[in-house]
Specification:
Blueprint: H1 3-26, H2 29-35, E1 36-44, E2 49-52, H3 53-62, E3 64-79, E4 82-95, E5 98-99, E6 102-113, E7 116-125, H4 128-132
Parallel strand pairs: 1-7
Antiparallel strand pairs: 1-2, 3-4, 4-5, 4-6, 6-7
Helix pairs in contact: 1-2
Length: 134
Amino acid sequence: MDEEEIEAAEQELMRLEHDWMTAMQRRDSVALNRLMAEDFILTSVFRGVMFTKWTFIRHTLRSLAVESFEFHEERVVAAGDVAMVDTTLTQKATQNGEPWNLRALLTDVWVQRDGRWQVVIRYTRLPTEYLDSR
């Protein structure tokens, strides 16, 4: 990839990150299915869970209501058909009717397959300032 292609991929990946969170917010199973690879896995260190694609989608549709979200400190590294997005997410939401507002560090790995990007890995963890305050 030349520099122009890398920049275009980086912009597309941040758009896809926003599309993914918007799909969660709208509880749009079609968009979630399209954006997430079949072999998707989420590891949440601070929640101590691991979700597959369909576990994640079911959880999002049944339990999670995202009111708002924002990305901060976005960094994208693209290399051919693989890219990593590293960012901080703030989210206002409820889970099973209880507040689920958070600030989390995200690392998402995207792979380009059949001409489109899909997320294959999401790894979440707490920001250092939270850990330092405990």
